[in-house]
């Protein structure tokens, strides 16, 4: 059984910089967001479950899901939010578990990038967890720049997630991304070589 490392972070924390680097080093990285996207394509398990629940109205003329409509249907109704969390969460977890078990047979070490790793209780899956961390003000600034948002809009998006400050005390290793990319990747190198990376102070 291979060693499994879970990677998480927050919006605009720099997680993709770490996972792209790991792939370039030859490691397998399962991307939970990409898995969800595949499942929501026509014929995918999430696509089928959503259409069965909400009906044909959520399908666009090109056969894809009408994501804005779907989001409004789910987020405007607490009962639909609960249904979505339960059913979509179950399907996603099953798919990720299948990928995990397959890679565990062939890889000595591999990574799983799960944005809601702590929130959705995936911790027990991993031998260790890495958190890509940035200070809140840096995160707000980067999110505003990346997505062309106002400060209020950026703050609103971040408020919907657990803070990185909270996650910092749950992760085994904390990668500080307040500096530049080279500084971040130096920390990743250190962990890959068996070093300890802890930036909780």
Task: Please supply descriptive tags for the structure shown above.
alpha/beta; 5-stranded parallel sheet; Rossmann fold; 9 helices; 52% helix; 5 strands; globular; 12% strand; 2 domains; 201 residues
Structure overview:
The structure is a single chain. The protein is α/β, with parallel strands linked by helices. The chain folds into 2 domains: 1-28 and 110-193, Rossmann fold (3-Layer(aba) Sandwich); 32-106, P-loop containing nucleotide triphosphate hydrolases (Rossmann fold, 3-Layer(aba) Sandwich), CATH 3.40.50. 52% of the residues lie in helices and 12% in strands. It contains 9 helices and 5 strands; from the N terminus they run βαβααααββαααβα. It has helices at 15-24, 32-39, 45-54, 67-75, 78-106, 136-147, 151-159, 164-168, 181-192, and strands spanning 3-8, 29-31, 109-113, 128-133, 173-176. It has a 5-stranded parallel sheet, with helices on both faces. Helix 6 packs across helix 7. The longest helix has 29 residues, at 78-106. The chain starts with a strand and ends in a 9-residue tail after the last helix. The model has no long low-confidence stretch (mean pLDDT 92).
User: What number is the mean pLDDT?
Assistant: 92
So what's the oligomer here? single chain
Secondary structure tally, helices: 9
- The percent range for helix content is 40-55%
Main sheet record:
5 strands, parallel
Amount of beta strand: 5-15%
With strands numbered from the N-terminus, the spatial order across the biggest sheet is 2-3-1-4-5
The total beta strand count reads: 5
Specify Rg, calculated over alpha carbons. 18 Å
Which series of helices and strands comes N to C? Answer: EHEHHHHEEHHHEH
| CATH homologous superfamily placement of the largest domain | P-loop containing nucleotide triphosphate hydrolases
Poorly predicted runs = none
| Overall structural domain count | 2
CATH C-level class of the largest domain: Alpha Beta
Structural class: alpha/beta
EC number: 2.7.1.24
Enzyme class: transferase
Protein name: Dephospho-CoA kinase
Function: Catalyzes the phosphorylation of the 3'-hydroxyl group of dephosphocoenzyme A to form coenzyme A.
